[in-house]
Amino acid sequence: MNPHTTIGVLTDTEVFLVEMVQGKRVLRSILLPPGMSEPIGLLEHVWQIGLAEVWVMPATTLSRTVTSAWFEQASSHWVVVVHPDPCEPTRPISALLWPKASSRREERRLTFVFPEKAGWDWALPDARSLLATVTYLDQTLVRPVIDSPDLVAHRMLTDLTLDQSTSWLQSSPLDPHTLSGSDGTTIPLMESARDLMWVRPLTRVEQHQRYLHKYTHLSRYLEACMAVQLGVGPPQYSANGRACDDIRPGIWRVSADRAGSLFDGKRLPSCLDGEWMSTPQVKCCRDIGYHVHVREGYYWPQSHQLLKRWATTLWRAGERLHTHPQSYRHAQARTNASHTIKLLAQIGVTTLAQEKTTGGWSRPDWLTQIIGRSRATLFAHLAGLARKGTMPVLVDRDALWVVSNDPNPLTAVPGLVVAPRWRGYTVGYEVPLPLSNEVREAFRTAEYAGQVATVLDTLAGEVFL
């Protein structure tokens, strides 16, 4: 745990925290004395306990009724800084406090946090699950998550890219409307940056198998950002496409055919989305056996791995959660923490393409390269599975589904979850979904991948109840 943070969870009647006893973490419960409905008494009580963060359990009296004015009642004895809920300004997301009489050398601050107002969307059946969730995040991220997801994600993205050159990060925003092909039409940058969603009918052999397994990836965006090259400076135009070297970031108009590749859109998904592709997509198509002719495009002669530190920090946090279960034993808290890491990654990547007027970085070309590389790593994974005889039946962004006669999700797809080096995958259904008539019908009548994924997750939830 971050040595500077002592975390507690407040309910209507008690405070839960973890203490070290003879080298072991022990859950402790401290009853609240009578008369704790007034702020000064409550603040003094949790301060004396030694807490730095107090997470207020959702649905408690304080969580339902607290206002910014409630904290201001303590301003005679405490310095009070309230962070209000933008959607309901009278209600706080968090409040930072410290005693006015404390020494200037006193570094400890007291933060009250209301997770249901912050919008983290955690499943919290009890106080223990909330305490474990925020403790796991404190241990893996080593930074507070006491604000809304947007604020935490933006701050983390900025903090972990400060070691890069300011000129790179503050390079001129890219107006995508200034990039056009030889025919004068604007290059559809964002249209070429789509996540993969694909489904196919079950084969005759698969229809007679017994189980359907789901596997979920932490974040293909993070995996991509750890190595993706992002262009800086003005892009250059290549009229004949010869500047495409599969390394420098760019957006290219291509003519491509599958040339006998297994990735034909029937047995495995197709890598062809349109005539414009990012550099990672062009390389991916060639790697899986497509014939690709680059006709023209734009590229950035100078590029850097600007997001490597940010992505690696989040990736390692997710890896620790899933590869050290003995240290993170609370299953729901582990799920909540993993969801948080995934959300921070999603918001961070989305920020790159947003306009600067809304807090973004105005670099849709960076998002295009990231999504292109994330698709490339996915196709590389699928190719590896296909070589071992595993053909997914459904891919929905960060998740894939496989039919098998093996009821054990860890062995149904060898080397996917249990591997010498973690590849980002975890088991989606702890108990496999029986290949029932409803499941077969979902694949037979599917109109699009997202529809099937929703049906399967609903059926899985009903089975587990």
Précis, in short:
By secondary structure, the chain is an alpha+beta fold. The protein has helices spanning 39-49, 61-65, 68-72, 115-118, 127-141, 149-159, 166-169, 204-207, 220-225, 279-287, 308-323, 331-353, 364-387, 409-412, 437-444, 449-464; strands at 7-10, 14-21, 24-31, 53-56, 78-85, 88-99, 110-113, 197-199, 211-217, 230-232, 236-238, 250-257, 276-278, 291-299, 302-304, 394-396, 399-404, 425-427, 433-434.
Summarize the structure in words:
With 465 residues, the protein is an alpha+beta fold. It has a domain at 7-145. Helices cover 35% and strands 22% of the residues. It contains 16 helices and 19 strands. The protein has helices spanning 39-49, 61-65, 68-72, 115-118, 127-141, 149-159, 166-169, 204-207, 220-225, 279-287, 308-323, 331-353, 364-387, 409-412, 437-444, 449-464, and strands at 7-10, 14-21, 24-31, 53-56, 78-85, 88-99, 110-113, 197-199, 211-217, 230-232, 236-238, 250-257, 276-278, 291-299, 302-304, 394-396, 399-404, 425-427, 433-434. A seven-stranded mixed β-sheet has the order 3-2-1-4-7-6-5, sandwiched between helices. Strands 8, 9, 16, 17, 18 and 19 form a six-stranded antiparallel β-sheet that branches. A four-stranded antiparallel β-sheet has the order 11-14-12-13. The longest helix has 24 residues, at 364-387. The protein is globular.
Helicity level = 25-40%
User: Can you count the beta strands?
Assistant: 19
Q: Evaluate the radius of gyration.
A: 25 Å
What characteristic shape results from the CA principal axes? globular
Q: How do the strands of the widest beta sheet line up side by side?
A: 3-2-1-4-7-6-5
Helix segment count? 16
